[in-house]
Amino acid sequence: MNKLLQILLLTIILVSCTPANASWFDGSDHNIKIGNLERQLKVQQSKADGAASVACFLGIGCVLLFIVGTAIGAKTRHDATQPTA
User: Fold this and answer.
1) Four-point Cα dihedral 5, 11, 15, 19, nearest 10
2) Which of 30, 29, 49 is nearest to 41 (CA)?
3) DSSP 2-22
4) Cα–Cα distance between 24 and 66 in angstroms, integer?
5) Number of helices (H) and strands (E), helices first, in the chain?
6) Helix, strand, coil: what percent of the chain each, to 5?
7) What is the longest distance spanned by two Cα atoms in the chain?
8) How far apart are CA 50 and CA 57, in angstroms?
């Protein structure tokens, strides 16, 4: 019961606190610039992630085509060495 009361009081204290402004700069102009740069970075990361996904799918497709081509070539070579009746 005592532990529950402590957790409840801690939760109330933490919820009642106002969020801190996580900025090193006093002026809002710098904060706006930082916000814009963070948005640009997110856009660049999403584009890079998309390109990495496309490259991964293309790589998997190439490996699958290589395996299928190898299987077809092996079958053709095997059939070519069989005597014809």
Assistant:
1) 140
2) 49
3) HHHHHHHHHHHHHHHSPPP--
4) 55
5) 2, 0
6) 80, 0, 20
7) 92
8) 11
Residue type for position 14:
L
- Let me know: does 3 contact 11? Beta carbons within 8 Å: no
Q: CA 67, CA 61: separation in Å to the nearest integer?
A: 10
17 vs 10: CA distance, rounded Å: 11
Considering only CA atoms, which of 49, 23, 18, 19 is closest in space to residue 35? Answer: 23
In tens, the pLDDT along 3-45 reads 888 888 888 888 887 766 666 666 678 778 888 899 999 999 9
